[in-house]
Amino acid sequence: MSKQLKLTDILVTVVIAVVFSIIYRVWTDIYNLAKLPGIQLDQLMYGMWFMAATVAFLIIRKPGVAFLAEVAAASGELITGSPYGVELLTYGVLQGIGAELVFAAFLYQRYSAAAAGLAGVAAGAGALALDFFKGYLIELQTWNLILYIVMRFIGGYLFCGPLAYLLVKALEKTGVTQLVRPATAEDYQALDRKNVH
């Protein structure tokens, strides 16, 4: 399978991003309800905003897809009227870079829940970089800042790892992923081996 993005790959990535941008827009209201002072439950839920990157990569499995999906989803969320405004694009870029770096570290060869979860953590680190730059995190007490960061990373791991992985596995069962991942010679050989036994 070629590792270069084809037009089909880009279009499917954008469709995934559009779906997630709508989910993100709805998720904003749920996220805001979870903002209870001190316990950082909202940060646990923050991982949802990184899922476009991992779902797209787990489906398409090519370099650049995680970054493209995250930026496109942030753009779509902006267009749908997110209260967070244009800074969403900066978050999308930083989150996309974080996720993409993890998949690159695995040479784009790991499609596991663990690899996707690590990409979610790295996307969370990208978002945290902007949060620190904006300066409001310095107002938190040390224990609360640590809780904030830990909850963000746990949420990134859970949403982008196991949840994204299970979502893609469910899509694989429908056969829809074969549109971008056609059967290879190795797939046919594996089927032949199964049928012999």
TrEMBL record:
Keyword Repeat: yes or no? no
Highest taxon in the source lineage = Bacteria
Q: Which residues cross the membrane?
A: 7-24, 44-60, 88-108, 114-133, 145-168
Query: Keyword annotations for this protein?
Result: Membrane, Transmembrane, Transmembrane helix
Protein name (Swiss-Prot/TrEMBL): ABC-type cobalt transport system permease
- Give the organism the record lists: Paenibacillus naphthalenovorans
